[in-house]
Amino acid sequence: MELIFQNVWLIPLFPFLASIFLGLGLFFFPKSIRKFRRISSSVSIIFLSIGMLLSFYLFWQQITGSPIYRYLWSWVFYKNLVLEIGYLLDPLTSIMLVLVTTVAVMVMIYSDSYMFYDEGYIKFFCYLSLFTASMLGLVLSPNLIQIYVFWELVGMCSYLLIGFWFTRPSAANACQKAFVTNRIGDFGLLLGILGFYWITGSFDFQQLSKRFFELLSYNQINLIFSTFCALFLFLGPVAKSAQFPLHIWLPDAMEGPTPISALIHAATMVAAGIFLVARMFPLFQMLPFVMNIISWIGAITALLGATIALAQKDLKKGLAYSTMSQLGYMMLALGIGSYKAGLFHLITHAYSKALLFLGSGSVIHSMEPIVGYNPNKSQNMNFMGGLRQYMPITAITFLFGTLSLCGIPPFACFWSKDEILVNSWLYFPVLGSIAFFTAGLTAFYMFRIYFLTFEGDFRGYFFDDSKKSFSISIWGNLESNKEKYKLETKSLLYPKEANNVMLFPLIILTIPTLFIGFIGILFDENKMNVDFLSYWLTLSLNSFNYINSEKFVEFLLNTIPSIIIAFFGIFIAFCLYGPNFSFKKEKKKLQIQSKIDVLFKNFSTFIYNWSYYRAYIDEFYDSFFVKNLRFLIKIVSFIDQWIIDGVINGIGIFSFFGGESLKYIEGGRISSYLFFLVFCMFLFCLYSYII
Q: Where found (predicted)?
């Protein structure tokens, strides 16, 4: 067992080696390796599966009482500066290792079929393996320097994968937007790391928190400076986990292949920010102002993501804003000190959201032969509907993920989300109110997505590339700008269920979506006074004081308000988008009803515009930052070109013409020199006489 603990570094090494092998094959044998597509994907899947088995073994050892294991190598020696690299294995790390490897293996199996006919198939698996290895290295990091290195690797891989189809302008713009936005957060993270090193003299998580506490106890710390350092450090997770106001890259990241959306939104990139805040939780707890900022940022992000998701037409972007909202819940939980609830929701949400994104990939895969390969059509829920009868397995697995995200018992997210709702209400009722209201919105927009996609009639033929167009409003009625039409029934194609390779991950992911939530619930308080997850986390490096010893019956009673709110949201979604809603609604003729209709329509227009224009935040950034920056650059360019360069060029031109003039004067004749000398003396004397 000791040998395995000493070789934990093999877990990220296996997917890294797979990436290296595929990359070298593409570089040296670009044509030959394309004939071995299945073998290439199998290498990635097998190598990562080995890492997954090791992760499960280490997880079992950690939860059964094995001590925290840390191994460090000296990297840099310079005077008093010592940088170390290595790995840290505690229950938090082992949980994250299992989470990342299981979701990544399912995504790779799914991608084997989803991406099979893509020209960049092998390159995709090369990037995917590197992406997974970077995230595994991040969660194993024992200090801030090493975590920053892998943090940047995760960002680089996300850039490559979001822009995988870079020939599409929207994908190229999306990966640049994600890269630039995350660089803002990463710069803040770097400043925070350096600031805390200046305060404590350490990059190590445990030593940093310990020394900070000692200095704080003896009042040897400038709290204002420490608070700024903590806020700068928090800026990294704000960008990486798509928190307001650096969330703008997340919906555009849907330009990447759908399996990447599943991996980014479930277990890798967005989870990295939550993981870092959890790792630094002991330090943040010593700064109450920073904890308040974290909680409010989380609450605003949760509410903002939910409101923008209300009227999205793009299936993947609707799920993307759902991810943003759920990440806000996790950050809210950490900000109010509910460490276990935040990590609990990270786990349950990861499996549910991976299931939803892979299910959306199956839907898009089946829609493309019918409506075309343009994402504006194949991902547009206006062209879907009635897919349950054609894709029953995808529909039921998607429904399970939807019920989980809505917080319906006994699905996984119910247990974690309700714990966040109750704790936030007890901490501060305003935050609790925002969380409860967001829960109702979540139930509405998630079932809106489900009903528009899988229920009703299939609408894939209500379109024409050149002349016809239509849209479904926020309130469900189908409004056609042109006359609706249908093609001949004989020539119709209909969606079909995905193949078994793509269905296998969906079925497997339904298991944790159903049962993973039970790890955080205390069923029998007589035998043990804490639930499994709380017990595991108390063994970790970041042991915490909060223990959820609430009785199971009391917990269920406390969840009644949230369940009622969730069902109310589902009921509204059913009334507006359920299978029985018709394409045409009769006009109400009563005067009082027409006024209500006008008010209702104005409100729906406002919600639609709020959602369509992404709460106008992108437009604000474009007007205030992008355009002003471009204007400033033009001014600087003008000054540089015409003033700075103009002065230099003017001196050069003057010197040139001065030299050209003097060469005619200095001809080498003494008579000429005497003439100019006498002439100049005459002018000088004349000037002196006049003065």
A: Plastid, Chloroplast thylakoid membrane
